[in-house]
Every structure is written in structure tokens, then in C-alpha cells.
Design brief:
By secondary structure, this protein is mainly β. Strands 2, 4, 5, 8, 9 and 10 form a 6-stranded mixed beta sheet that branches. Strand 43 and strand 44 form a beta hairpin. The N and C termini lie far apart (163 Å).
Amino acid sequence: MMTLGSGTLLLYLAFFISISTAFGKPSFTKEPQDVKAIEGTTTEFHCDVDDIQAGDTENFNVVWQMNTTSNNYMYIHIDNVKYMYNQSYSGEWHHSLRINYVSLSDKGHYKCLVYKSGEFIMWSRAARLDVGPPPFREQPRDQIAVEGDAVVLPCRFDNLNEEKLEVHWMKGVYAISHQYDILHIVPQARYVIPGDKGSGRFDLEIHEVVVEDSDVFTCVVYRQQQPHLVTHSVQATVLVLQPKTEQPTCRIMNPEKSYTAGDVIATACMAREKSMTVSLSWLRNDEVISGTPVRSGFSDILDHWILSASDNGAVITCVAEGRQEDRLCTIGPVEVLYPPIVAVAPRMLRTQVGETKTVTCSARSNPKEIQYQWLIDGQPLREGLTHGIFDVKSLHNVLIITQISAPDNNQTVTFTSTCHATNVVGSSTANVTIATKVYGGGQTATTTPEDTKPAEQPPKKSQSSQVCDNGVTLSLTVVIACLTFLVGVILSTTIHRCLAYYRRKNKGLPNFYIRHNNELEREGASTDTADCRRKESAGNTEDRNMVYYGKHNAEPVTIKAYKK
């Protein structure tokens, strides 16, 4: 029997140990891969290990190393804030390293190392992490503008993490914005960033630029938690030039798309040349609005205006009075919202049985959309129901009234109708009074059989009595004729004098024809009108009652005057 030497036995033992070790050694099924990340975002590396039994995972450990500044690797401390570690087992041992808030300092190589029971076994390939700034979709560019123009400086990103990064605009060396908000270092009314959160758009708009806006502008990106510059755009130079002809500048200090009647607006006007003074006027259709203040004699003006419905469409004009010529700037037209201004026609209406008449309600407002409602004696009109002796209907802004029966005892029946007009700003009303016509005289008398009997004849007078009566009658007739002739002469003289007076006083106006006792009287040629005066009673302009007075305080004579 052959025996093995001690040396041979040791060789066999080492061989079996190496074989068992080779078959039990784990291997990588997935190693970290190169990554390109945008600063401020999150990235991950993966490392999967095979040939590890589920119950044996406690004896294995995976750690990560990184090399960012030199060839020396250092272990990564898992703090669950910047660096996070995750592992799971599903036939393979899965490991991942997450890096939050990637910055330029994270740029380098990363690899995972496997340990068993504290002893190093193997390491993965080194994966490269490249970190770049958020890519600009559009950057600002140099611009030249004239005072009063608008300037837009674009600053737009793709894949910008606005929760971790923040954007600022720099004017020279000063920050003038934070995200979408303009800081007080510049006029907030003229500097605007109109972008929406999450859009990656941070365009800077400068309205009505002035020479002082000239500067170098830069769009920069910072980290939020640890202020650190991430990236910046190219520097854009804005140069604002004065216009060749110095114009005044004017603007509304509290600009709105529209105002409501009663609002107050503040307007400012400034002359560029020290030798110029300005005059601020409130105009509509190039005419100064009556009752509004006009300021002048200053190099700059600040005024406040209380708006009314009549100011809708008005324009504020600032005139700079120079040595050679006047120059101006305008603001507006201003849109003023106001409730309806209502009027009804006619304001008084009389009806009779069987008549149908209408009342029209007209209103103007801004906005123009108006809703109409009719009220009868303060109560909403109910269609289909009669109102006493009247049938009342409405058709939008028109009221239709029909008198369907006569009032009792020929009495006057009246009621008040109200037009109520409403828009989104407010409402207003106007009233109209409706009444039945009044007829003079009493009831027509009826006849009875007794009334048909012939009346008793008076006794006949004697012949001498009849002669006496005829003489008296003739004398009275002569007296009356004389008096009538004298009155006619006096009246004619008075009328002609008054007509001459009014013809001379109202030169260029239509002549009046005078009807007296149904006789057509024309203007006289007399110019003696020293004591001629006229009173007009209220009434139709086509039919005026005029009272003339003579110069001897005689009784007034009432006549009718008709326009020619």
C-alpha cells in the first residue's frame, strides 16, 4: 500500500481549498456606468453582486469610493442627505448609490468595493460622473434702446430644478431679482419677470427705459440651501440713448387695465431739459375737460385725478413748453367702468281708453351689457296681469301701456313706472308717470216726456216799448264797436313793438309769427321797444304762451307764438 508523504498531502489540501474557494467567490452582474448629470439634479450608480446566498448576506458588505480631485480614492460617508445608500436581495444582491443636489464638486470617478467578514474581496470598474450646469435654451444679448422703449432680456432653461436652484438677475454687481420677484433696488413698476413657476423662463422686461437703465445684465443660477454659483449666462450690455428731440415723459403711477368711476389715478410728467417747463392737462377729444385742474410752470408734475363716467376714453396730455417749440406726451385713453346712466322718454304720459303708448328707457354704461327691469309703483312688473284700468307689458327696454277702460266718475288715475338698468358695476333708475286724460264739461243731459212740451211764450210788448228797446240796443252796439276799435289799436301797437324788440335782440334766430284772436299777425316795423318785456310760461316749444306788458303798466295781453 502506497502512503502519501506530508508534502504531497499539503499540496492536495491546498488544491481542494482553492477549488472550493473559486466556486464560492461572488461576481458582479452589473457595475456602475458613466453618468452625465445637470447641476442641482439627482443621479445614481448601480452595483449588483451574484453568487451570494440569501442567508449569507450578513457576512458581506458593499462600500463606495470616489475620486474627485486626485488619484486617491476616499470612502463615501452615507449621510442620507447628500448621499443615500440602498440594497435589496432577489436572487442577486442589488446595491445603489444616490447623489442628491449634484454639484461641480461631485465630478469624478465612483466604484463599489465588496467585503466579506471584514476582508476585501473585489471592486467594480470606476464609473465617471460628469457634471454640467443647467443648459440655457436662450440667453440675453446686447441691446441698444431709446428712452421710452421696452427692452426684453431672455433667460430660459431646459431641465431646471427650481426646487433646488434659484435664478437671479444681476445689474452690474447688484442682484435685482430673486426667482420671479423684482427687488426694490430698481423700479418695480418698470422691471418685470413675467414667467410662470416651473416654466424655466426668467425673461427680464424693462418698460419705458431711461438712461439710468444702461448697464451690464447677467442671469445667474445659485443653489438654494448652500448659496453657491452654479452657472451664469453671457453678459448682455443694455445701452439707453436719449431721443434726438427731448420729449417729456408721462405715465400713470398706479396703472391698471381699467378703472371704476370714483377711483383715483396718479399721473406724473417730467421734462428732460432743465430749461423746459411742463403743463399737465386732462383732455378728451383734444379739449380740456371742464372742471379738471391744469398744472403748469414746473419741470415735473405729480397730480391725482378722481375718475367719473365722463372720463371714459379720456387722454392725459403733458405739454413741455420749450424755447423753440412745445412737445408733448400722452397717457391713455383711460377706460373707466361705470354703472348705467338712465333716461326715459317721455317722462310724463297721458292716455285715453283704447290708446296704446310706449315709454323707452335708454342707458349708457361701461361695460355696455345692460339688463333692464320695469317696476310699477315700486313693484316688479308681472307680465300678463293688468294694472287697474291699464294693460302694461315690457319688451326689453320698452314699456307698452294700453288703457283698457275708463276711470270711475271721470277721475284721473296715475301710476309711476320705474326703469331699473343694471350692469356688472352697478345700477340706476329713472321714473315715468302715466296718467289718464282729463276731459272738461259734465255729463250729457238726457230728455224726458215733460221736456217735450212747448215752452210758454212771453207776453208781447207794445209797439212803443219795442221802439225804445231798439234805440237802447243801437246805442250799446255803437259804444261796444268804439271800445273794440280802441283796444285793437293799442294791442296792435304793443305787439309790433315787442316783435321788433325781440327781432333785434335775438338776431339770427328764427322769426316768430303771432296769432291773436285767430288772426295772423306779422312782425311790425316799429323799433320803439323801450318798455317791452316778455314772459314765457312752461309749455311746448312749438306753442308758447307769452305775456306782453305795455309801458303804462296796462293789463297784460296773452298771445300764442308759433315757430316759423
